[in-house]
Amino acid sequence: MPHYVPFFEWSDRALALRQFNYEYWCEHGHGPNLRDVHEKLGYDRGEIVQTYKELALGIACTIDPDSQNCPVLRFQPFASFPTQVKAFIDGTFHSYAGCAMEAVAFSNMPPFLDREVRLESYCMCCLEPVGFTAVNGDVTDRSPSIFVHVSTSPVDWFNNDLMIQCDSMSFVIDADHAERFERQVCRRGVMFTLEQAKAFVSAAVGERMWNYNKPSERMDPAVVIDAVRSLGVDVTGWGG
Asked: How does pLDDT run across 178-204, given as a tens digit for each residue?
């Protein structure tokens, strides 16, 4: 259970592999395979797999470490499979965002500078479409009513990887729809406005791809809950 892992200094290999993934995902809308990494960075298969494990421990990505091809399932802010959020760049489908929280910061990636990024999703209660448009991290247009809903507690985030955490971060139309969705999945949750969501993720993702040496991240549930509470989010659903 990788909670409370101390911050650590990335290896040179990890920094190079992280940067290559950012560039590749932004250009192609999907991640590189082992051959792509080998051709670009010269690492052999074992070096690639071990370096992805290092990146996963520092919460840069989610991989399948038991696979011989080490598929990358998520490389924030991207996902390699259909999620609840589609990202369109200048009107053309680009990729799937990792989750609703990642969607809020998606347009802040340097290759998308000054470009219109539209994030299309749906309310988890009724599947009615919701979404917003952003430029350089700032929302320029949105559905009449849209909130980020999180149906798991930080206590359960990153127990092994980011899958459960990201899967539970979705959009809802309003509090009534959030409550109905919570009954559907037998869970309590918390709601963020888009502004609160942006403030929540800004510390972790504000430097993403802008700072080549961006440090590793760590999971400390109590710190996360306190930070969310300080934004004015009602965290009663998290027991506090």
From this structure: 999 999 999 999 999 999 999 999 877
